[in-house]
Amino acid sequence: MAARLARIDAIEQDRDRITAELSEPPLAGATEESLRRIEDAASTVDRIGDQLALTSAAVELTAATDIELDAGGRRISLAAGQSWSTTATGPTVIEVPGVLTATVTPGATTLDVRAR
Questions:
Q1: Which residues pair with 71 in a beta bridge?
Q2: How far apart are CA 36 and CA 5, in angstroms?
Q3: Torsion of CA 97, 102, 103, 104, to 10 degrees
Q4: Which residues of 45-75 are buried (b: 16+ CB within 10 A; e: fewer)?
C-alpha cells in the first residue's frame, strides 16, 4: 500500500510540474531577435511560395468519361466532366493506367526558385 501511495504522490508531482510548464506563455524564452528571425523566415517562405506559384506549370485535366489517374502515386477518380488540377514545381508524372503517361517538367526558373 505504501508503494502505491508513493507512486500516486510521484504522479501528482509530475502532473503539477507539467501543469505549471503548460501554463507558461509559449514564447516565454523568446527574445526580440528570435521573434524577428522567425518573422523573417516566414516572410521568406511566403515570398518563395509566391514565386513558385508564378513560375510553375499549372496542369488541369477534365475527364471526358469516368476515369482514374495516378498523379505521383496518388489515385484520383474523376467522373465525366469533373476536373482536377495541380501545380508542377518539379517534374510531375500523371498517368492514366494502360493508356498514357505524361511528365510535366517546369522550366529552369521554377526549378531554380524551388532549390532556394
A1: 74, 94
A2: 48
A3: -130
A4: eeeeeebbeebbeeeebebeeebebebeeee
Assess whether pLDDT exceeds 60 at residue 111.
Answer: no
pLDDT at 110 exceeding the cut of 60: no
pTM for the full predicted model = 0.49
The residue type of 114 is: R
Cell of 48: 518563395
Find where cell 508503494 sits. 3
pLDDT for the residue 115: 62
Cα separation, 25 vs 48, whole angstroms: 31
Cβ proximity of 71 and 61 under 8 Å: no
Q: Which of 110, 96, 100 is nearest to 57 (CA)?
A: 110
For 88, the grid coordinates are 508542377
pLDDT one-digit tens code per residue, 7-53: 888 888 888 888 887 777 766 667 788 888 889 999 888 888 777 77
